[in-house]
Amino acid sequence: xxxxxxxxxxxxxxxxxxxxxxxxxxxxxxxxxxxxxxxxxxxxxxxxxxxxxxxxxxxxxxxxxxxxxxxxxxxxxxxxxxxxxxxxxxxxxxxxxxxxxxxxxxxxxxxxxxxxxxxxxxxxxxxxxxxxxxxxxxxxxxxxxxxxxxxxxxxxxxxxxxxxxxxxxxxxxxxxxxxxxxxxxxxxxxxxxxxxxxxxxxxxxxxxxxxxxxxxxxxxxxxxxxxxxxxxxxxxxxxxxxxxxxxxxxxxxxxxxxxxxxxxxxxxxxxxxxxxxxxxxxxxxxxxxxxxxxxxxxxxxxxxxxxxxxxxxxxxxxxxxxxxxxxxxxxxxxxxxxxxxxxxxxxxxxxxxxxxxxxxxxxxxxxxxxxxxxxxxxxxxxxxxxxxxxxxxxxxxxxxxxxxxxxxxxxxxxxxxxxxxxxxxxxxxxxxxxxxxxxxxxx
Length: 443
What we know:
This protein is an alpha/beta fold. It folds into 2 domains: about 1-305, Homocysteine-binding-like domain (TIM Barrel, Alpha-Beta Barrel), CATH 3.20.20; about 320-435, no CATH class. It contains 15 helices and 16 strands. The strands form 4 sheets. An 8-stranded parallel sheet has the order 1-10-7-6-5-4-3-2. A 3-stranded antiparallel sheet has the order 12-11-16, with helices on one face. Strands 13-14-15 form a 3-stranded parallel sheet, covered by helices on one side. Strand 3 (about 115-120), helix 7 and strand 4 (about 155-160) form a beta-alpha-beta unit. Helix 6 (about 85-105) crosses helix 7, helix 10 runs parallel beside helix 11 and helix 11 packs parallel to helix 12. The longest helix is centred in the N-terminal third of the chain and has 19 residues, at about 85-105. It is globular and about 70 Å long. It starts with a helix and ends in a 9-residue tail after the last helix.
């Protein structure tokens, strides 16, 4: 752990480029996929020479880190190819291939590293595609295999759903706990051309939600090129207390003949990365879809030896919903916290809505409170008169932070505070409020 983070503290660390793009350049045959065409992860077993060659091509141009060919190697994704029983085998094999190449290029003065790639799967828990705990279990399984394979970093990347990102973080930390090993963890979210994550999350909300976790790096990757990422990178540089990583695509994808084509030139990617490093203090750069060894060679030449801008970030206490973030110290004051959504007060209206499972009415109430000017909703669904005290299950769109009260009888919460929660960064209530889901739990 110390070696990688020490390198980040000392200089700009450069990741490799696209795995999928460079696999396509090598034209694997249908037989190479063992009848599972489209499952690039399988090439770690069927054509390890292709994967090894890709890693070699990026290390040869000066990259410090390569990512394992495991972006979709979770049970959730592999089940679509009837390969769900090969999770451990694929992840361990991919990690060992990358480690072998990294060791060939490593020296005392320039160590090379391997990042275990952990993608978003094909499910969005916030939309009910998968249970939160099932997604955690899938990430736990993948991360455990990557750790066994010897990766130096665990890279949660291309996160499109904030709840999915948090499930990945929980699974990764549970895997490290079981393995008795702590290695650096990176979480990278993906912002669409609209400037938000796929489900509408702003970068400020994502940062507020992820910073309380014990991750080491927070950044951006995929979906767009560096020019579209500029504002979000500037925000992270000014507000994140963690190291910042940026791995853009080679521009916005363009559809040509039914294929995604990326037209950003190597020197253009290099120019933007130099800007991110010199002006925003970014210390980890690289490439995503469409980027080649030529792109990364230009980046190495542009940022090698450059001192990143100094970042002196003072943490700001804030709360977020799944969409926006609200600082706890507002200017102008006051911070308005609505307290009508609390079952423990003398007013029975909300308590009756919860008991009656009138979720549409509850959502209507929440929206009314927001429209009345509330910045946060004080949400408590506990009821000492109920034997199950199992919490409130529901979903809806409310763009305000939730301050969650969570006393639920004898129910035991795990160390990540799942079941109860709001995203509260820097709150005095500590870990109980700072972990878990960003919304009313919809599991």
